[in-house]
Write a structure and sequence with these properties.
Elements (H helix, E strand, L loop, with lengths): L3 E5 L8 H8 L4 E5 L15 E4 L11 H15 L4 E4 L1 H9 L4 E16 L6 H4 L5 E12 L6 E5 L7 E4 L2 E4 L7 H10 L10 E2 L2 H5 L2 H24 L4
Parallel strand pairs: 1-2, 1-3, 3-4, 4-9, 5-10
Antiparallel strand pairs: 5-6, 5-7, 7-8, 8-9
């Protein structure tokens, strides 16, 4: 079976709940760790899907692997191989497809609602979801919607929270978070909470009722991941 390639850019921004989802559905995947020196794959047809995770860097930084990852994403989408992006990974998808990644008008960190943007292209991705639900956020940049893609989710803090293009899906917000990931990110980044402003919640606000919030997040993630997996299934062999 062809595995899904899961690209991580730093160790502390791993696949989180996405790995749990794949294990539960017995879908093979292989971690490709940029932070540990792994090379970006060249040929997307070796994989049933490509997943790109988050990271503290910008896609506009002069890092040697960014062009290679963008090339892989473009090639995968051209071959109809599903791509899934989380935060930095979504910004990578936007850049690869000709979009722009710029500073958002404010930083967004914590639990904030997102709402559906309904259209014929997005309906299969959101049909069984509530019109608005709570997602986790941790970003200061945003992407434009690339040509051929359709906005899927939005909110007042950041207009472009997700887009779809064919069988590929990009999230600016985070649906892959676990309790452990959230607590680890807070511990690693105390500077973010010294004087919270913009759309930045305090650490106490983020961690209040954390397990219940994460459980609700996973229920929505299950729907998105299951829909994305439909495009992967016929490419596993």
């Amino acid at each position: 079976m062809k595995p899904i390639a899961v690209i991580t850019h730093v160790d502390h921004e791993g696949p989180g709940y996405f790995a749990t989802f794949l294990d539960r559905h017995k879908v093979p995947f292989q971690l490709i760790s940029i932070g540990r020196g792994d090379a970006i794959p060249k040929n997307p047809t070796h994989w049933s899907g490509i997943c790109s995770m988050g990271g503290p860097m910008s896609v506009n930084d002069p890092l040697p692997w960014i062009a290679d990852e963008c090339a892989l994403i473009r090639a995968a989408i051209a071959e109809d191989i599903p791509v899934l992006g989380h935060c930095l990974g979504a910004q990578m998808m936007a850049k690869a497809l000709g979009g722009r990644v710029t500073q958002n008008h404010l930083r967004e960190i914590g639990w904030h609602p997102v709402r559906q943007v309904e259209s014929s292209a997005t309906r299969p991705w959101i049909n069984d979801l509530p019109g608005e639900f709570m997602a986790f956020h941790w970003h200061g940049e945003t992407f434009s919607i690339p040509t051929g893609a359709t906005r899927l989710l939005t909110n007042s803090n950041c207009e472009n929270q997700a887009f779809v293009i064919g069988n590929s899906l990009a999230f600016q917000c985070h649906v892959e978070m676990t309790d452990e990931l959230i607590l680890d990110w807070i511990e690693r980044s105390p500077q973010e909470f010294v004087n919270p402003r913009d759309a930045v919640q305090t650490a106490d606000e983020i961690t209040h009722d954390l397990s219940r919030r994460v459980h609700a997040l996973h229920q929505n993630a299950d729907f998105f991941y299951s829909r994305w997996l439909e495009g992967v299934t016929d490419k596993l062999n």
